[in-house]
């Protein structure tokens, strides 16, 4: 069973008749932690405006006691804005946090006169529907029980300011609204589970039901959840719409295809700021999702790779240079892409110029690479510097890639899954070296083997793990290995 405590500066503010327990900061300081206490979650309603205030220490002590707390110390520090007027301690304060949002969203709230518009947000909810989208986005960035939002400025360039707000400063109507939203929040992510096996940590597994080709199918996700429980982790599947409360988890596992200019990258960054263990971590996403980075990193660190050039123009001189380097056919790649998207084979100069012009209209730089056909690509799964699975992905029928997106319905070739000890040593060595360039997360390293030579094609930060494919040799042990890594990292985090 989980326990939720609401901590306040003054018990006169407590809603004694509610279903959750309200306690004073003094009691929380004196009575906790308790021996054999259930997993405890804290909603800190103390004043957090000042550094080293009761509210600050409430969250700091909660984190030390391994209680999940809202807001975290990191959020408090992010929101400890400085009011422009003199504070009671004599120090001058600066402006509130200015938060960047879709300008169209802000313009919908701005008035023609530029009059400031304000709203209170309770647990990411706002009574005024016009503010709700903004409220959710701000709560994702600053997960705190109460936030004060203000839109001001000319309608063409409105600005959103975000301030912390204390429970003691709410008027009677606002408190009533807060108390209405409180049970909605505590009964969602912060719900009790009577009779459930007591587990040490909470893991969010992000999936996107709308994604056509997700990294893991539903059967694999179910196995991740079961494997997590075996190592002391309660795993919950969340969708992008349910990530407002990501700070209430201990760890995050991304099973939605990642990209840099994408919510997955921003969610990983946010989760890391809140102290979660994250796979894929933001740095891995940043490095893997840009083939320009991988090309340079492979070159400098001696990772065997196909001959590659970075192209910035389609001038005659540039075409002459890459023709001389690669001949035809050659391959052009967008810096970002997955599942064979953004990869093109060109057969002659005319096609090269046309395709380069198309790609350079989308990106400043394009990769040109030697064409190398093999009947299959190796995929080595690497976790924390260890090879944990190996597959051979065969090319799609009558096609030069694993995935054929030219068809109305994309098709892929077959696969073989085999134990890592049956993989040629040169392939394993190159895969581990390439993964080490990126980090210590979970990666899928793609390689080609031509006789005695091995070439790393790319490192994927969000590798496919589907039931019946990547787990065909290890079975459920593959899921236990990955969840075991989460448990080990969570254990190490607790020791720091």
Outline the structure in words:
The structure is a single chain. The protein is α/β, with parallel strands linked by helices and 496 residues long. The protein is built from 14 helices and 23 strands. Helix 7 packs across helix 14. The longest helix is centred in the last third of the chain and has 20 residues. The protein starts with a strand and ends with a helix. About 4% of the residues have low confidence.
List the helices and strands and how they pair.
Blueprint: E1 3-8, E2 21-24, H1 25-31, E3 40-44, H2 54-64, E4 68-70, H3 73-79, E5 97-99, H4 103-107, E6 117-122, H5 132-141, E7 146-152, E8 159-164, H6 172-186, E9 201-206, H7 218-230, E10 233-238, E11 251-254, H8 263-273, E12 277-279, H9 282-288, H10 291-301, E13 308-311, H11 316-326, E14 330-333, E15 343-346, H12 349-360, E16 366-370, E17 376-383, E18 386-394, E19 403-404, E20 411-412, E21 415-418, H13 425-438, E22 442-450, E23 453-460, H14 476-495
Parallel strand pairs: 1-2, 1-3, 3-4, 9-10, 9-11, 11-12
Antiparallel strand pairs: 5-8, 6-7, 7-8, 13-16, 14-15, 14-16, 17-18, 17-22, 18-21, 19-20, 22-23
Helix pairs in contact: 7-14
